[in-house]
Design goal:
With 442 residues, the protein is mainly β. Helix content is 3%, strand content 34%.
């Protein structure tokens, strides 16, 4: 049980960012406007594109502050200075961005090893990189470098990709920490398809995405992305994190809210595929997204297996009607101790297993709603999973995604043996030999 448990979210009122009358996602709090930053010839800044200050849910741990940067440090306070400093950056430089809203005219491409790009104040609500007037569809890219850290800032209002990790051009070991990704209309984080590479030089390794908030104000519309049309993806080509051929990624302690397509068929809040291996997806909160966590999909491409040796554990997923957690063309993956609530699920896919999933282990998951959809013929190890028709009265706050268990008769019936690959729970509380099914150990 974590000290930060609460039965509600802090309230936030969202300002429409892309279209008049855009509906907010849930009750998410107050708004603080960041001061405008002079663009020095890079275009006007519109006050209608301010980012809201979205409070982290009170029952989730906050991101521990990163250590102060060492070595050379440069502070920037204008769009022009930001681009000039990035373009001239040498390995190891730390760029601290002063509070303000920066209307970027084009992609900001980071290309120096061990570069750090951080909000100077440590508050992502106060440092906003805005793509509303960008000539490009991608906002911040990482190319031909390793060891980049991006932290403590907001990116928003971009047609395609918010953070683009160009693994096909040797981007490696990137950390995205304590950032807000807001109104990005294809992927919040994208690592693309890589060329044939027997030596695996192009596979993005060692990426960490942690303590980030991904949210859109409303479902995607055709006007958000000219490439997403009735003849292509029907307005549903949108997701949170989409990584191909990745190696040893950690995606943890993030919040995803309202990642939805025009007709309710968006891609995953987390989507790993195309020969991804040895990744961990843990302690994330997913609320009202069309898809939750997807290991693979039904399109094989040039790889017979999408995910190998990946682990999905200790996540809360509330209302993800396309898939809560999906395993589709996987090998030796683990789905352990997740809690999924969606009793009115449209497609009844709280956990869905389809096509080949050799060596898959599905253990100690708690489903509030329909039973698993088992559409695979592979030999899967099932252990200790439990399905209850509707546990709304047993969770702290299902509307806010707080699926911690109350002290109730139902909670007492959820005992299970500890699984070695899930030694703690969503609150980082160590599990005893006899633990509780689902992500929370009360």
């Amino acid at each position: 049980m974590h000290a930060f448990r609460s039965s509600r979210w802090l309230t936030v009122v969202l300002i429409p960012l892309l279209a008049a009358g855009a509906s907010a996602v849930g009750a998410w709090g107050r708004v603080n406007r960041a001061p405008d930053v002079a663009s020095r010839g890079f275009g006007a800044i519109s006050a209608s594109h301010s980012a809201p200050a979205v409070s982290w849910p009170s029952w989730l741990p906050k991101a521990p502050p990163l250590p102060k940067p060492t070595g050379e440090v440069v502070r920037v306070g204008t769009v022009e200075a930001l681009f000039q400093t990035v373009e001239k950056a040498k390995p190891g430089l730390a760029i601290l961005v002063e509070d303000g809203r920066y209307l970027l005219p084009r992609t900001l491409d980071l290309h120096a090893d061990n570069l750090t790009l951080r909000g100077a104040s440590g508050d992502p609500q106060k440092v906003i990189l805005d793509g509303a007037k960008s000539q490009h569809g991608e906002l911040v890219a990482v190319t031909r470098c390793s060891g980049v850290t991006i932290a403590d800032l907001t990116i928003q209002n971009i047609r395609h990709n918010g953070f683009k990790l160009n693994a096909d051009r040797l981007a490696q070991r990137v950390t995205i920490y304590h950032c807000t990704i807001h109104n990005v209309w294809q992927r919040g984080v994208k690592s693309p398809f890589v060329p044939d590479d027997p030596q695996e030089r192009f596979h993005a390794r060692g990426v960490r995405i942690q303590y980030c908030l991904f949210y859109n104000d409303r479902p995607k519309q055709f006007s958000d992305d000219p490439t997403d049309t009735p003849k292509t993806f029907g307005g549903n080509y949108v997701g949170g994190i989409d990584a191909m051929a990745c190696r040893s990624w950690t995606i943890s302690d993030n919040v995803f809210v309202g990642i939805r397509g025009r007709t309710g068929s968006a891609r995953g809040a987390v989507f790993l595929w195309q020969d991804s291996r040895d990744c961990i997806v843990e302690r994330n909160l997913i609320i009202d997204c069309d898809c939750g966590i997807c290991l693979g999909n039904s399109s094989r491409g040039r790889f017979p297996i999408h995910c190998t040796g990946c682990t999905v554990r200790n996540n809360f997923v509330a209302r993800a009607p396309e898939n809560g957690i999906l395993a589709d063309y996987t090998r030796d993956c683990r789905i352990l101790h997740n809690t999924i609530h969606d009793p009115k699920s449209r497609l009844q896919r709280l956990i869905r297993l389809v096509h080949d999933n050799d060596g898959l282990v599905v253990a100690n998951n708690l489903l509030s709603g329909p039973s698993m959809r088992i559409e695979t013929t592979s030999k899967v190890q099932f252990r200790g999973n439990q399905t209850v028709k509707d546990m709304i009265g047993d969770f702290v706050d299902v509307a806010g995604g707080n699926l911690h268990l109350k002290s109730s008769p139902a909670a007492a019936t959820l005992a299970a043996d500890r699984f070695a690959e899930a030694p703690d729970d969503i609150d980082r509380q160590a599990r005893g030999p006899l633990t509780t099914i689902g992500a929370d150990q009360p």
